[in-house]
Each structure stands twice: as C-alpha cells, then as structure tokens.
Amino acid sequence: MQSHSKSAHDKHTAKRRWLDTxxxxxxKSMGNRQIQMIAIGGSxxxxxxxGTGGRLEMAGPALALVYLVCGVFSFFILRALGELVLHRPTxxxxxxxxxxxxxxxxxxxxxxxxxxxxxMTGIVDITAVALYMHYWGTFAEVPQWLFVLCALGVVATxxxxxxxxxxxxxxxxxxxxxxxxxxxxxxxxxxLGIGTPVAGNTTGLHLITENGGMFPHGLLPALVxxxxxxxxxxGIELIGTxxxxxxxxxxxxxxxxxxIILRIGxxxxxxxxxxxxxxxxxxxxxxxxxFVTFFSKLGxxxxxxxxxxxxxxxxxxxxNSGLYSTGRILRSLSMGGSAPKFMAKMSSQQVPYAxxxxxxxxxxxxxxxxxxxxxxxxxxxLNIASLGIISSWTFIIVCQMRxxxxxxxxxxxxxxxxxxxxxxxxxxxxxxxxxxVIMMAFDYPNSTWTIATIPVLAVLLVLGWFGLRxxxxxxxxxxxxxxxxxxx
Length: 488
Hints:
- The protein is mostly helical.
- It has one domain: Amino acid/polyamine transporter I (Up-down Bundle).
- The chain is 74% helix and 0% strand.
- The longest helix is centred in the C-terminal third of the chain and has 34 residues.
- The protein is globular.
C-alpha cells in the first residue's frame, strides 16, 4: 500500500512538472496595484451600471438580497480558485487545474466552454462600444463598423504589445468605474444623512415600506433574477489567469480575493440599498442607468454624458479582459492537445498572439452576424455564454475538492489560503449553480432554449475532440517522455 501511495505521489509530481513547462515564456510583470484593479474590474461591469435599473423595476428592493446571495457564492468560487492558485499559479487557470486533477477531457470541455463565454460576450461588448459612441450626436453619421474596428484595433494592439500594457489599461478602466460608483455612494450617503428630499421625495426607509415592502411583486421575480445577477459577476475568475503573470502570486492574490467580497458588498448591495432609500424603487426603469436617474433628478448637468463614458469604459474593459483570457486559455488548451497546435505560439513579447487573433476574428464575424440575425436569436446565442461561465465555475469547485483529496492523500503540499467552510461550502456552491441552471430551464423562452442547446454543444465538443486526436496523441507521447523515471 505504501509503495502504491509513493508511486501515485511520484506520478502526480511528474505531472505537475510537465504542467509547469506550459508557463515557459510568460513575463511575471504584474504588480500589486494592477492585480488589485483587475480584481475590482472583474467584479464591476455594465451589469451594475446599466442592468440594475431593469432589475429594480422587476424585483424592487429585494434586488439587494439577490446581489448579496450571489456575491457570497461568487466569493466562495474565488476562494476555491485562490486555493488552487496557491497550489500552482498558472496562466491556464482552471483549464490547467482540470487537466491536473480531472484529465485532458475535462480540461478540453471547460476550456472551450469558457472560450464560448468570452466569444459571445465580446461580440456584445464590441457592438455596445459602437452604440455608446453614437450617443453623442457628433458621431451620429459615423458608420458603426468603423467604431468597432477602431475599438478592436486599440484593445488588440495593447494586448499584443505585452501583458504590462493589458494590465495598465485594465487599471485605468477599473479606476474610472470605481470613481463613478464612489461618487454616487458619497452623494447618496450625504443626501440620506442630511435628509434632503430628492425630486420631492423625502429619503428614508419609508420609501420601501410605503411601496410594497422588500418583495413588492412577490418572491418569484427575485428568484428569477438570480440567474441574471450571477452573470453580472462573470469576469471575477480572471484573477486566476492573471496569477500566472503576477510577480508574487502567493502574496498578492489572497489579499485581492479577500477584498472582492467587500467590494461586491459595497458597490452592489450598498448601491441598491441607497437607490431605494433615495427614490421610490419604481422610479427606476429598464434601459436607463439608475445612477443617471438619481443624478438627473438632482439636475446634475451632463450626467448622461458622464455615465455614457463610464459604460463605454466598462465595455472596453470587458473586451480587453476577453482578449487577454482567451489568448492564455487557448494556449493552455493547445499545450495539452485540446486545441490546434498553432494556438500555442508566442510572440517575441511573450504574448500568446495566435489565440488573441482567433478571438479577434470571431468578434469581427460576430458583429456582422449581429446585423443579419433577428434580435431574439441573437439573445439566445448570447445566453449560451452563460453556460460557459457556469461550467467554468463548477469545474473550479470540483478541482478544489480534488486538490483537497490530493493533499489528504499526500500527493500535494498543503496550502495556507483555504476555502472557508469546505467541503460543506464546496457542495453548497455546486448545489447553488445547479439551481441556477434549473431556474434557467423554467425561464421561457430565451433561457429555456439556451438549456435546450446543451445537447448541440455536447455533439460539437465530441466532434472537436475527435478532430484533435492526432495533436492530442503527440502531446500525450511528449508527456509520457517527460514523466518517465529519471527525466527532468
């Protein structure tokens, strides 16, 4: 038995050594300032700035509770990812961890599902950039495709130059978002503290109790919103990819991850609580940022222009992150034999340019499709992206559970940064993600059709797997040589 245990330990150690070779060539140039901002940027996006208005209209003050619950589970997912990162920092993130603990097939599935998520999200982001630019009358006559190409060109160029440029762009994008939400929080607290009426409404708790309470439309609308809100936090897992190019991941990542739950609590929950205490919840509506609604009631000049700059920044930030993450994920897949061989190529600047260019090509094609297909079909395609993020988060939790098992068996070293409450919180998070999928199935028509596409995606993944057999066999032979006794 002891001999078998030692053999399993040696095999796992050899596999980790082979996986570490995947990190060769990356620059470890991200500092604490940039890592902190990437963590913040991943948790704040258009879901907060634009989506909150429609969600308040649908669920009322209960939205604060929905944000809180989804934020807690997002934190558990990040802590699970943090445990994996401290075990072995890698730009392949959960794709590499799935390869280590679950095998190449699992790595293949989670990698391509995550790529699908960013491919669909990026198409919407790049289209949104053009629409936001048309907000200003000066640019009304400029063709939409021109804005699309300019935005894609700038973001792609920054990603191609090097990781430091990506990180610097993300730093400033995040800073703009934080400044905007901080301005609202400060103004809201001042108005609430002084008791100054807003648009003739006295501020305070009575705005909740006098307008139907916490659940003005009942519990069901709040439950339905969970699936939309959980996707507003999509992007928080980007910090796991960034860990592979971080100077001191063991020191920087735990602090950044722990701070995320505080920011979610402050920016999401705090903002909704303030919004419903400053104005009746039914003053907010879909299609308009609730922050614009509030400041417009105060008569603040140019608030529409200011908020348009913020949402434009949020869209560019998401586009920037999508190119960064897909480039690294596709390279990790290729290194394991789960993507075409050319996607493993690196530039002289240590950038996985092949994967970035492939993603850029899909974005351009996607914008063309956006003009051609009916809006409902496009929404269904976009909803498919949600399956990508759910599968990615599920694999993070499963890999964390397998890491704990490997540590218990002595096949991996213990880590100091552990997921709190595991394994109970691990199972609870998996149950929550399953519940989200079930709720999607009953959200007719778009989300129902999204769930119905799972068999189609499964067929495509199977066909892709068999199409990559030759490359996968070559990689497997290379791995066996690397793991052979005496090899280093």
